[in-house]
Amino acid sequence: MNHAGMDHAAMGHGDMDHGGHGGMDDMCSMSMLFTWDTKNLCIVFRQWHIRSTVGLVFSLIAVVLLAMGYEALRALSRKYEHSINNRITTMPHDEPHTETTPFLAPGQNQQSASKRGHVVKSVFYGIQNFYAFMLMLVFMTYNGWVMIAVSLGAFLGYLVFGHTTSSTKDNACH
């Protein structure tokens, strides 16, 4: 369909709905190139729209805290895995346990505890991957300030929560 003969001036900009956000000057900018520009910066969601310096500062603090939260989640996951492995090694191999202790349910053995522990570890794994990919999307705003905030959050998170962990990353995306 050829629209060359349409009178675009007659349509006017007043007919365009911008969702009540103040027009074209107040829309989220999406850059696919590295930038330090913060005008109309949106982080992952249209609702996380930065319109002021104060908004930028609070958003960068939030990004640092989010990245630290990822490291806290990884530490919690490692702590759970260590705890469940210790519990499983102290359990009977095949015969059901007949005593009730604070850590064991009646009749629980290594195999059933291992299966239950694996389900919980799988939940941790799935949440960690989702979290890591979301942080990757935050980083992919290609905004230098946001990229620094993610990296600073990873640094501070590892500093606070990574005491018992190698600094070598095993996840490719964050």
Q: What do you see in this structure?
A:
One of its GO terms (cellular component) is membrane. This protein has 174 residues and is mainly alpha-helical. Helix content is 51%, strand content 2%. It is built from 4 helices and 2 strands; from the N terminus they run H-E-E-H-H-H. The protein has a two-stranded antiparallel ribbon. About 9% of the residues have low confidence.
Instruction: Report the sheet-strand fraction.
Output: under 5%
Q: How many beta-strand elements?
A: 2
Order of strands in the sheet with the most strands? 1-2
Mean pLDDT: 80
Q: Over all CA atoms, what is the radius of gyration?
A: 25 Å
Q: Work out the helicity level.
A: 40-55%
Q: What's the SSE pattern?
A: HEEHHH
Query: What sort of overall outline do the alpha carbons produce when their principal axes are compared?
Result: elongated
GO cellular component, one term: membrane
Pfam families: Ctr
Family: Belongs to the copper transporter (Ctr) (TC 1.A.56) family. SLC31A subfamily.
Membrane topology: Multi-pass membrane protein
